């Protein structure tokens, strides 16, 4: 039973990345090296954020809500924008821009799942006692895949799409900042409303879906 629970949770967490790769033209263009490089850039941005968080953000044993600290964490999240910009502009790929941002976003999401969820799955999902926690983490990983693709899409539209309408540029900037601050916004909402794990999952799914729909509308409006 513990082994099958581990397999189910791991499949829910990581299989969608492979399904997306093989169900889209990414596999036809052999874009896995681009995704792998995107994962490497994510790791660099992740450790840079860890250093900044350890240096500038103070931790409270009482776990009280501190708007200044939450804002600082959101600003540190802008390093993701820098990382995605670097990945999209500096990584060479023999694919179109629409496929490149998907490859980068896929690698970004996969690295996030590995760094945040692989160890907890391995340590926790093998226990004798069944827990919904790890299934929920798998759903969070799926939401993060959509979020990462959406984030990569708006960054590519803002800085790499040359023929976009000028009136959409401010909206693209706003969308990029919303994506960058979304984890901090979710954290604030969770603390202020004292949400339970199931409610946190619904919040994640709702906010990610909203960002993805907005990105798709912008992508369509830019003629991409």
TrEMBL record:
TM region positions: 40-59, 71-89, 101-119, 139-159, 171-193
Keyword Manganese: no
Compartment(s) of residence: Cell membrane; Endoplasmic reticulum membrane
Keyword tags: Cell membrane, Endoplasmic reticulum, Membrane, Transmembrane, Transmembrane helix
Gene Ontology CC: endoplasmic reticulum membrane; plasma membrane
Topology of the protein relative to the lipid bilayer: Multi-pass membrane protein
Family note: Belongs to the TMEM147 family.
Name recorded for this polypeptide: BOS complex subunit TMEM147
Source organism per UniProt: Cymbomonas tetramitiformis
């Amino acid at each position: 039973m513990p082994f099958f629970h581990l397999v189910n949770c791991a499949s829910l967490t990581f299989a969608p990345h492979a399904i997306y790769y093989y169900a889209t033209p990414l596999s036809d263009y052999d874009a896995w090296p681009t995704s792998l490089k995107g994962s490497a850039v994510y790791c660099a941005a992740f450790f840079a954020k860890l250093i900044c968080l350890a240096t500038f953000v103070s931790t409270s044993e009482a776990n009280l809500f501190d708007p200044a600290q939450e804002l600082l964490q959101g600003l540190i999240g802008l390093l993701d924008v820098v990382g995605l910009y670097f990945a999209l502009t500096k990584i060479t790929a023999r694919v179109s821009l629409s496929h490149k941002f998907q490859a980068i976003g896929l690698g970004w999401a996969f690295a996030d799942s590995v760094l945040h969820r692989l160890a907890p799955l391995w340590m926790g999902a093998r226990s004798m006692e069944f827990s919904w926690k790890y299934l929920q983490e798998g759903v969070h990983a799926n939401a993060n895949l959509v979020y990462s693709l959406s984030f990569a899409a708006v960054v590519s539209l803002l800085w790499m799409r040359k023929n976009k309408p000028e009136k959409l540029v401010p909206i693209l900037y706003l969308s990029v900042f919303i994506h960058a601050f979304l984890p901090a916004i979710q954290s604030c909402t969770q603390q202020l409303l004292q949400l339970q794990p199931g409610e946190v999952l619904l919040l994640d799914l709702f906010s990610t879906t909203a960002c993805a729909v907005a990105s798709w509308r912008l992508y369509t409006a830019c003629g991409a």
